[in-house]
Design goal:
Helix content: over 70%
Number of domains: 1
CATH class: Mainly Alpha
CATH superfamily: MFS general substrate transporter like domains
Structural class: mainly alpha
Order of helices and strands: HHHHHHHHHHHHHHH
CATH topology: Growth Hormone, Chain: A
Distance between the termini: 34 Å
Largest sheet: none
Number of helices: 15
Radius of gyration: 20 Å
Number of strands: 0
């Protein structure tokens, strides 16, 4: 495929990840409905997102090995299938354990899907522009999350029908993601020869001894990522909208809109910083800058009752 065709592949990959990120963040907008219509407590709502992460502690590595063995495109299709089945079960939602099982299956697929699509971007952009392409990939993922946060506005009629239709909408979008993953698999056979060494069987193939070759900087970055995720995701993806409703007295639609500014800002900030990284390097300095910003918006949100979007947007810039 002509080198310009890789941007069309990136667009296709973006469809896959955006639909799944929408489903990932689909619980927060319905959390209040689940409380009042299903009688769920905060622990039950929290479990719907926490269960997503549990299998990925050991399975992320397994997913990475699977990608190396069968290829990024095939792994993407399998993972998208898990995500679709998981969101369907989540939408069925009764009894509670069916919803939990659905979120578990979705989590198993989602992490592998993210890694496999990111590997696919790296393969297609092996000849250059990888940082910008990955930044655009992250931006499109956040378009999915942003759309989920503001869905009480653009899909108000769906939410008016109760807790289940919004989750059915999420299942529909992951179905579209699955179809896009199937098309991506068909197109991947035309990947440029320049990316061959990153394909399964090339120099990028996983070896168990590789686990002992990471230097200290890798483990520092890993620890920073864990700390960041432990602060950012439990709040933003599970309880932020309910927090804005209960603590700031906002309506569901307004709370979702405020929360959406995390990824609204990130949609634009991520490609900018990706372009900076491609042009000037300084990746460690950019990482330090982001880490230094994070302590500002989190406590401020608890104290401020004005200009909430500014602090939420700053959180999005840091991520």
């Amino acid at each position: 495929m002509h080198i310009r065709g890789r941007w069309w592949v990136l667009a296709l990959i973006a469809v896959v990840i955006a639909g799944n990120y929408y489903a990932w963040d689909s619980i927060a907008p319905v959390a209040d409905l689940l409380r009042h219509q299903r009688g769920f407590n905060q622990s039950q709502i929290g479990l719907l997102n926490a269960i997503y992460a549990v299998p990925n502690i050991p399975l992320s590595l397994v997913g990475g090995i699977l990608i190396d063995r069968i290829g990024a495109a095939r792994a993407s299709l399998i993972a998208a299938g898990f995500g679709f089945v998981g969101t369907v079960l989540t939408a069925v939602g009764q009894p509670y354990w069916v919803m939990v099982t659905g979120r578990l299956l979705f989590g198993i697929g989602e992490e592998t899907l993210f890694i496999s699509l990111l590997a696919g971007v790296a393969q297609w952009f092996a000849s250059g522009g990888a940082a910008l392409a990955m930044a655009l990939f992250f931006s499109m993922a956040r378009v999915g999350s942003y759309s989920a946060d503001i869905s009480p506005r653009w899909a108000a009629g769906v939410y008016a029908a109760g807790w289940q239709p919004p989750l059915e909408l999420a299942a529909l979008l992951t179905g579209i993601s699955f179809v896009a993953a199937l098309v991506y698999l068909r197109i991947d056979r035309y990947r440029p020869a320049a990316a061959a060494e990153n394909a399964p069987g090339g120099h990028g193939r996983f070896q168990w001894r590789d686990l002992t070759r990471f230097d200290r900087s890798f483990w520092y970055i890993m620890a920073l990522n864990v700390l960041f995720a432990s602060v950012f995701f439990p709040f933003r993806s599970t309880f932020a909208i309910v927090f804005f409703q209960d603590a700031k007295q906002l309506s569901l639609a307004d709370a979702g809109l405020v929360n959406s500014w995390v990824f609204f800002a990130a949609i634009f900030a991520t490609p900018v910083f990706g372009l900076i990284a491609d042009r000037f390097g300084r990746r460690a300095m950019l990482l330090t800058f982001a880490a230094a910003l994070m302590p500002i918006p989190v406590p401020t949100l608890g104290l401020a009752h004005w200009r909430l979007r500014i602090w939420v947007a700053l959180m999005g810039v840091t991520c």
